[in-house]
Design a protein that fits this description.
Elements lengths: L1 E6 L1 H4 L8 H16 L3 E6 L2 H8 L9 H24 L5 E6 L1 H5 L1 H16 L3 E6 L13 H11 L4 E6 L20 E2 L4 H8 L4 H4 L2 H13 L3 E6 L5 H6 L6 E3 L4
Parallel strand pairs: 1-2, 1-5, 2-4, 3-4, 5-7, 6-8
Antiparallel strand pairs: 7-8
Helix pairs in contact: 3-4, 7-10, 8-10
Length: 255
């Protein structure tokens, strides 16, 4: 099975911007084990700007574009150093690919991207993809890494897309406001009700990124790819998701 896994900044780093060492080590170990079982894995990783801001000792995530790009340049080095070190411990080789919107929109550049990913997978490597935040200027150009992950999954012919987030999945209501909100385990159609739950104007879930995840789900489902939203704080859930068990919210594509 070809699996695209997207990991967000909230999973990779503490609120200080510094690396969440224990969690990232566990994540890399589990992804390595999933690869050992014969699956192909493509990792879409956020975190460059946040980690760069932490390493530069900035008070928080920068607001101006120049500092964002500078933080991304520093943070991307930190990310790839960490991934290379941890995956190497389990005898897996990583390869870095940084994309801009032009790479997904231009036919020739998109084909070159697909060829590179395909060859990396054939060679047994683990492609790690991020938006090229050091040169992109709109968020930072593709829009967000949920969208990026969905585009990668569709372009590379993935069987499954997994978004690791800071929430267990899609809920009937905002779980931060209503403790009785229930998780929705299965979604077979993204209708008005789902849209309203995920990103109605002014809702905290929408501003928290659930709306972009629903957009990513639409892209994936239209390409015949199942997508799962699950909690990145529990990387062991990846085992169950790959086996088809209920962990988080699964958006079922029509087969």
């Amino acid at each position: 099975m070809r699996i695209v896994i997207k990991v967000g900044t909230s999973t990779l780093a503490h609120k200080t911007g510094r690396l969440n060492i224990r969690l990232v080590e566990e994540l890399c170990k589990i992804i390595s084990d999933i690869k050992n079982a014969g699956n192909e894995v493509i990792l879409v990783s956020s975190g460059a700007i946040g980690m760069g801001a932490g390493k530069l000792l900035l008070p928080g995530r920068p607001d101006d574009m120049q500092t964002k790009q500078a933080a991304a340049a520093v943070g991307q080095c930190e990310l790839m150093y960490t991934y290379d070190k941890l995956f190497s411990e389990y005898r897996h080789t990583v390869g870095q690919i940084l994309l801009t919107s032009e790479d997904t929109n231009d036919e020739i550049r998109n084909r070159n991207f697909v060829n590179t990913v395909s060859r990396l997978l054939e060679l047994g490597a683990l492609p790690i993809i991020n938006e090229n935040d050091t040169v992109s200027t709109a968020e930072i150009s593709i829009g967000d890494n949920d969208t990026l992950a969905s585009l990668v999954a569709r372009t590379c012919g993935a069987d499954l897309l997994i978004l690791l987030s800071d929430i267990d999945g899609l809920f009937t209501e905002d779980p931060h406001k209503n403790a009785e909100a229930e998780i929705i385990y299965d979604v077979y159609e993204i209708n008005e009700e789902i849209e309203k739950i995920a990103g109605g104007a002014g809702t905290s879930l929408g501003t928290g990124g659930m709306a972009t995840k629903i957009s990513a789900a639409k892209l994936a489902m239209s390409a015949g790819i199942d997508m799962v939203i699950t909690n990145g704080d529990k990387p062991e859930y990846l085992y169950d998701i790959v086996e088809g068990k209920k962990r988080g919210t699964r958006f079922h594509a029509a087969k």
